[in-house]
Design brief:
- The protein is mainly α.
- 53% of the residues lie in helices and 3% in strands.
- The chain has 2 domains: 40 residues; 259 residues, no CATH class.
- The chain has 13 helices and 5 strands.
- It has a 3-stranded antiparallel sheet. A two-stranded antiparallel sheet has the order 1-2.
- Helix 5 runs antiparallel to helix 7, helix 5 packs across helix 8 and helix 8 packs across helix 13.
Length: 344
């Protein structure tokens, strides 16, 4: 009898424990759900994507959270056509003429992929306008990251002038990583400052336009490659259809347009072929206090096998498109989420 009673009590304790675990699980799930609704926890990716209509087979435009947290946060639209992108530009009151005049900041609209029908636009002037407005925020955003690193370098140089060394170990470690990244044999802040600097928007937009055919090339449409950068790693890019049999290069492809822009800027700031570009840019900054994309185009003969003809083309695009004024352009307030950081 005693054994049966003990067995019965154990069963009761087990049932009670099981019920407690189930109840705790239900309460935890309920708390998590409330947390998502209240905003203290991020919604799972699948939920967020479904809420934003993510089942459309296109990539999104990422809009940042407004700097004022009290403002309503609108979901990012999912754009797959020129019309949808133009509507987004109009909603943001994004006008190139106002940007050129300095009357308007460029909205932080970070487009991950070209609209699927951009290359089918019959109106070349319209395709050019859409392309410029699409590429410019990407260029300005990557420049923003570069200038942030440059600002940190200047602060570290000031530390050395004041203290004879860099006091913070984390700053010393960061500086070492920058030297390694940019291929310096000897750690030299002045040498790094020559490399870590902005690319004039006029030059970047003109090169993107020329290399991608204003967004119409196969490389741009299929691989987000708007700067025609070569890679010799098999499978890392798209094979040119007219490639000679003795050539092994591919045109490097990217998961996002932002990565293409980041890799292009890093290339100009790193590769030994563009040493003259960097020296000229440094001279412009010191002597004029500004960087001139039209003049810098003359240092990029080695960017293309066309040499001087390529430079003339880039300068013609800058001049005819009124791109020189874009060198004064700036991004509006706010910042895109960390997930859109460029990968080079």
């Amino acid at each position: 009898m005693t054994e049966r009673l003990d067995s019965h009590m154990k069963g009761v304790r087990f049932d009670f424990a099981a019920l407690a675990v189930v109840a705790s699980s239900i309460l935890l799930l309920y708390a998590l759900l409330l947390g998502e609704v209240a905003g203290w926890l991020p919604a799972p990716d699948g939920v967020a994507q479904r809420a934003a209509g993510a089942w459309a087979p296109v990539l999104p435009v990422v809009r940042p959270e407004p700097p004022d947290a009290a403002q309503a946060v609108r979901p990012a639209p999912w754009l797959g056509s020129v019309n949808a992108l133009v509507d987004a530009f109009q909603e943001a009151d994004y006008r190139l003429d106002a940007v050129r005049k300095g009357d308007q900041a460029v909205p932080r609209i970070i487009v991950e992929k070209l609209p699927a029908d951009l290359h089918r636009l019959e109106s070349l002037p319209q395709r050019k306008r859409v392309f410029i407005k699409l590429i410019l925020p990407l260029v300005l955003y990557v420049n923003e990251q570069i200038l942030s690193e440059r600002g940190r370098l200047v602060e570290l140089r000031d530390d050395i002038d004041r203290f004879g060394r860099i006091p913070d170990p984390s700053d010393r470690a960061w500086l070492a990583r920058m030297g390694e990244r940019y291929g310096l044999d000897t750690l030299d802040i002045d040498a790094l400052l020559r490399r870590i600097d902005m690319i004039p928007p006029s030059l970047a937009v003109a090169q993107a336009a020329e290399e991608s055919g204003w967004g119409s090339s196969r490389f741009a449409r299929e691989g987000n490659a708007v700067f025609g950068q070569y890679t010799y790693v098999s499978g890392a890019g798209l094979v040119p259809l007219q490639r000679d049999k003795d050539r092994i290069h591919e045109v490097r492809s990217f998961s996002r347009l932002l990565d293409s822009v980041g890799a292009y800027m890093f290339n100009l700031n790193y590769h030994r072929a563009y040493g003259k570009f960097r020296r000229t840019r440094e001279h412009q900054r010191k002597s004029r206090g500004r960087i001139d994309g039209y003049a810098l185009a003359g240092t990029l003969k080695r960017y293309s096998e066309r040499g001087d003809a390529y430079v003339k083309t880039i300068r013609a695009i800058i001049k005819s498109g009124g791109l020189r004024a874009l060198d004064r352009a700036r991004l509006g307030a706010g910042a895109p989420p960390a997930r859109v950081e460029p990968k080079v």
